[in-house]
Amino acid sequence: MSITNSATNLGTTLGDFLTGARYDLSGLTSAINEYLDGVRREYGPNGFAERAEAAGYGDIVARWKADDKTGPMTEDMVRTLIVPNDLEWFAGQTGLSDRAVVMILAKQLPIVVYKRAHAVVPH
Protein backbone atom coordinates (compact mmCIF):
# COMPACT_ATOMS: atom_id res chain seq x y z
CA MET A 1 0.00 0.00 0.00
CA SER A 2 1.40 3.40 -0.91
CA ILE A 3 1.76 6.32 1.47
CA THR A 4 -1.01 8.12 -0.42
CA ASN A 5 -3.37 5.17 -0.01
CA SER A 6 -2.45 4.86 3.67
CA ALA A 7 -3.13 8.55 4.26
CA THR A 8 -6.44 8.33 2.38
CA ASN A 9 -7.50 5.25 4.35
CA LEU A 10 -6.52 6.91 7.63
CA GLY A 11 -8.49 10.01 6.69
CA THR A 12 -11.52 7.95 5.71
CA THR A 13 -11.33 5.86 8.88
CA LEU A 14 -10.96 8.98 11.00
CA GLY A 15 -13.87 10.59 9.16
CA ASP A 16 -16.04 7.51 9.79
CA PHE A 17 -15.14 7.65 13.48
CA LEU A 18 -15.76 11.37 13.88
CA THR A 19 -19.09 11.27 12.08
CA GLY A 20 -20.25 8.06 13.76
CA ALA A 21 -20.61 6.43 10.35
CA ARG A 22 -20.43 2.92 11.74
CA TYR A 23 -23.54 3.63 13.77
CA ASP A 24 -25.52 5.69 11.25
CA LEU A 25 -27.74 3.06 9.72
CA SER A 26 -30.66 5.11 8.41
CA GLY A 27 -29.09 6.29 5.16
CA LEU A 28 -27.59 2.94 4.35
CA THR A 29 -30.80 1.09 5.22
CA SER A 30 -32.67 3.28 2.74
CA ALA A 31 -29.97 2.62 0.17
CA ILE A 32 -30.23 -1.15 0.78
CA ASN A 33 -33.95 -1.04 0.05
CA GLU A 34 -33.37 1.05 -3.07
CA TYR A 35 -30.65 -1.38 -4.18
CA LEU A 36 -32.82 -4.47 -3.60
CA ASP A 37 -35.70 -2.80 -5.46
CA GLY A 38 -33.34 -2.24 -8.39
CA VAL A 39 -32.15 -5.87 -8.31
CA ARG A 40 -35.78 -6.97 -8.25
CA ARG A 41 -36.67 -4.78 -11.25
CA GLU A 42 -33.64 -5.92 -13.24
CA TYR A 43 -33.47 -9.62 -12.34
CA GLY A 44 -36.97 -10.48 -11.12
CA PRO A 45 -38.53 -11.00 -7.70
CA ASN A 46 -35.91 -13.54 -6.64
CA GLY A 47 -32.93 -11.85 -8.26
CA PHE A 48 -30.95 -11.33 -5.07
CA ALA A 49 -31.72 -14.84 -3.79
CA GLU A 50 -30.67 -16.30 -7.15
CA ARG A 51 -27.41 -14.33 -7.05
CA ALA A 52 -26.81 -15.65 -3.54
CA GLU A 53 -27.57 -19.20 -4.68
CA ALA A 54 -25.10 -18.92 -7.54
CA ALA A 55 -22.44 -17.71 -5.08
CA GLY A 56 -23.11 -20.61 -2.70
CA TYR A 57 -25.03 -18.52 -0.14
CA GLY A 58 -28.58 -19.50 -1.07
CA ASP A 59 -29.26 -21.35 2.19
CA ILE A 60 -28.00 -18.40 4.20
CA VAL A 61 -30.25 -15.91 2.41
CA ALA A 62 -33.19 -18.30 2.85
CA ARG A 63 -32.47 -18.32 6.61
CA TRP A 64 -32.39 -14.50 6.61
CA LYS A 65 -35.88 -14.49 5.13
CA ALA A 66 -37.14 -16.89 7.80
CA ASP A 67 -35.34 -15.69 10.93
CA ASP A 68 -34.25 -12.22 12.01
CA LYS A 69 -31.71 -13.67 14.46
CA THR A 70 -29.41 -15.29 11.90
CA GLY A 71 -26.53 -12.92 12.54
CA PRO A 72 -24.40 -10.71 10.35
CA MET A 73 -22.69 -11.57 7.11
CA THR A 74 -18.95 -11.80 6.73
CA GLU A 75 -17.00 -9.21 4.76
CA ASP A 76 -16.30 -11.88 2.14
CA MET A 77 -20.03 -12.54 1.74
CA VAL A 78 -20.72 -8.83 1.27
CA ARG A 79 -17.97 -8.50 -1.32
CA THR A 80 -19.19 -11.63 -3.13
CA LEU A 81 -22.87 -10.72 -3.23
CA ILE A 82 -22.45 -7.02 -3.94
CA VAL A 83 -20.12 -6.11 -6.78
CA PRO A 84 -17.52 -3.34 -6.33
CA ASN A 85 -19.46 -0.85 -8.48
CA ASP A 86 -22.50 -1.34 -6.25
CA LEU A 87 -20.40 -0.93 -3.10
CA GLU A 88 -19.13 2.34 -4.58
CA TRP A 89 -22.75 3.33 -5.24
CA PHE A 90 -23.59 2.68 -1.55
CA ALA A 91 -20.61 4.79 -0.49
CA GLY A 92 -21.68 7.59 -2.83
CA GLN A 93 -25.28 7.48 -1.59
CA THR A 94 -24.29 7.61 2.06
CA GLY A 95 -20.96 9.43 2.16
CA LEU A 96 -19.48 6.47 4.04
CA SER A 97 -16.13 4.86 3.36
CA ASP A 98 -15.96 1.48 1.61
CA ARG A 99 -15.02 -0.16 4.91
CA ALA A 100 -17.93 1.41 6.79
CA VAL A 101 -20.33 0.41 3.98
CA VAL A 102 -19.17 -3.21 4.11
CA MET A 103 -19.35 -3.35 7.92
CA ILE A 104 -22.85 -1.90 8.05
CA LEU A 105 -24.09 -3.98 5.11
CA ALA A 106 -22.83 -7.09 6.90
CA LYS A 107 -25.09 -6.28 9.83
CA GLN A 108 -28.07 -4.65 8.13
CA LEU A 109 -28.60 -6.60 4.91
CA PRO A 110 -29.84 -9.75 6.70
CA ILE A 111 -32.25 -7.63 8.76
CA VAL A 112 -33.56 -5.80 5.69
CA VAL A 113 -34.01 -9.08 3.80
CA TYR A 114 -36.01 -10.46 6.74
CA LYS A 115 -38.18 -7.35 7.02
CA ARG A 116 -38.84 -7.30 3.29
CA ALA A 117 -39.84 -10.98 3.35
CA HIS A 118 -42.36 -10.26 6.12
CA ALA A 119 -43.63 -6.89 4.95
CA VAL A 120 -47.38 -6.47 4.71
CA VAL A 121 -46.89 -4.47 1.51
CA PRO A 122 -44.37 -6.47 -0.55
CA HIS A 123 -41.27 -4.74 -1.90
TrEMBL record:
InterPro entries according to UniProt: YidB, YidB-like
Q: What is this protein called?
A: Uncharacterized protein
Please tell me the species this chain comes from: Gluconacetobacter diazotrophicus (Acetobacter diazotrophicus)
One Pfam family of this protein, by short name?
YidB
